[in-house]
Design a protein that fits this description.
Layout lengths: L4 H7 L13 H9 L13 H11 L6 E3 L6 E3 L17 E7 L4 H12 L2 E4 L2 E4 L2 E5 L5 H14 L3 E5 L3 H10 L6 E5 L4 H11 L3 E4 L3 H13 L5 E4 L5 H17 L10 E3 L5 H13 L4 E4 L4 H15 L12 E4 L8 E5 L2 H14 L3 E6 L6 H6 L5 H10 L10 E4 L7 H8 L2 E4 L7 H6 L4
Parallel strand pairs: 3-6, 3-12, 6-7, 7-8, 8-9, 9-10, 11-12, 14-15, 16-17
Antiparallel strand pairs: 1-2, 4-5, 13-15
Helix pairs in contact: 1-2, 5-6, 6-7, 10-11, 14-15
Length: 445
């Protein structure tokens, strides 16, 4: 049973020493109760209190690390069911399945495609971060060879998939420096699989068709000494799989049911691109820590990466670009100067339309705390005063000779006050960014 903040506070030293990083012991206790802090931050807690608080201090979903270095993937340790309650902290890994039955040419071709799956969207780099290597041959030597080839060809994190512990051990030996996730511990092989994972200090996937069986497996694996566990309820239709993922998350967060308090991995089953995209997007939304796909075509992967990016952005901190002037094309002092906010989606939408117009243009992104034009205007973050200050900050007088700025049509109401306060000529542009190409082609001062 989870303890309340006050119950936890009674077991703490109550010295308010701040060594834990919080101003008071009560504040620390509240963070412990909310699963947002760990007990090891308090260096003065007694052994008796530590034992009593052990359960309360553990995150409801275990944090699991796959890989090493800057590119490592961390999954789990989530504290809410819904993004609007707080935020999701550890973005799901997106990866692709490679079977050891592929010949060298097919393997190289697929790895080349996977390595190129990096994109820029609203100012952020997004991309794949996992390769899952499956033993389809059942041959340990073949599996080891393919694992070595993959490790030598990509820096992405590795998942090793095999039901035979000896085959899996061969894969571990070939990738021991990459800290792979081991997949395939089931009721029949769990003892041998635990030996492989424990011996190498690696995370292990518990596989069973039902959550009750998963709970039994995770308890057995943990009791044997493997702490980092990922769960997988196997291939199912989309509805059944999402139900499993959702129920496991709910049991971990709402009921503090430790045997299901682990992140999950999900493999897509459809070979049809549109169906696979729907599967993968659903798994990311509800609530897989790693999603492994079959297809790796850019047009199929980008929607999945965009879904992940949108879900794992902090809803209280809009994605922003740096407030400054951006030059699109070979600008001169006669080029238009248009004004917008620094909300990433707004800026990149505007920038895309400006590029499409092929008219060299300067875009001044005003600091509006990451709000869109109308939202910022309503919140008084995008006003004649803020635009005037921005003109001075970027020394706009030195950028254009025509002393004219173009404001969004939706805030045309501010044009008179802005012209009077800034001393600049104001032109009202189109309401929608889609109107910019035609507007810029006919721009006159």
């Amino acid at each position: 049973m989870a303890l309340s903040g006050l119950e936890i506070y009674k077991l703490l030293p109550k010295t308010n020493c701040k060594d834990c990083g919080f101003p008071t012991c009560l504040a620390f206790a509240m963070q412990l109760a909310a699963k947002k802090a760990s007990l090891d931050k308090c260096p003065h807690v007694s052994a008796e209190a530590k034992q009593a608080l052990e359960g309360a201090s553990q995150p409801p979903i275990k944090l699991v690390t796959v890989g090493t270095g800057d590119g490592k993937l961390q999954i789990g340790n989530e504290t809410v069911m819904f993004r609007h309650e707080e935020t999701f902290h550890h973005p799901a890994g997106v990866g692709f399945l490679i079977e050891d039955s592929l010949d060298d040419a097919a393997l190289k071709k697929k790895l080349d495609k996977i390595n190129k799956l990096q994109f820029e969207r609203v100012g952020q780099r997004i991309g794949a971060n996992v390769v899952a290597i499956k033993s389809a041959s059942g041959d340990a030597a073949k599996f080891s060879q393919v694992v070595k080839s993959v490790c030598g060809s990509t820096k992405l994190n590795i998942v090793l998939v095999a039901e035979d512990p000896k085959v899996l051990a061969a894969g571990v030996e070939a990738s021991k420096d990459r800290r792979p996730l081991l997949h395939g511990a089931n009721k029949a092989n769990v003892d041998e699989m635990v030996k492989v994972a424990k011996g190498a200090g690696l995370p292990l996937v518990a596989v069973a068709s039902g959550l009750e069986e998963i709970a039994e497996l995770t308890q057995k694996i943990k009791a044997a000494g493997v702490e980092e566990i990922v769960i997988d309820t196997g291939p199912k239709d989309l509805t059944a799989k999402v139900n499993d993922l959702t129920y496991a998350r709910r049991m971990a967060l709402r009921k503090t049911f430790r045997p299901l308090g682990y992140p999950a991995i999900a493999f897509t089953t459809s070979s049809e691109p549109a169906d696979e995209i729907a599967e993968a997007a659903s798994f990311i939304s509800k609530y897989a820590g790693i999603v492994i796909m079959k297809n790796c075509e850019p047009e199929e992967v980008l929607p999945i990466l965009a879904t992940r990016q949108d879900l794992y952005n902090d809803p209280q901190k809009p994605v922003q670009v740096e407030p400054k002037v951006y030059d699109i094309g070979n600008v001169t002092k006669e080029s238009p100067l248009i004004v917008t906010t620094n909300f990433s989606i707004t800026y990149y939408t505007v920038a895309g339309e400006v590029e499409a117009s092929k008219v060299p243009t300067r875009i001044m992104a005003c600091d509006a705390e990451g709000m869109s034009v109308l939202t910022a205007w309503a919140a008084e973050k995008f006003t004649p005063e803020t635009i005037t200050r921005m003109l001075g900050t970027v020394n706009a007088d030195s950028l254009v000779s025509h002393h004219t700025i173009v404001i969004p049509g939706y805030v045309a109401v501010m044009s008179g006050k802005l012209e009077e306060g800034s001393g600049w000529k104001i032109q009202v542009g189109p309401r929608e960014a889609s109107g910019l190409p035609n507007y810029l082609k006919n721009f006159k001062v």
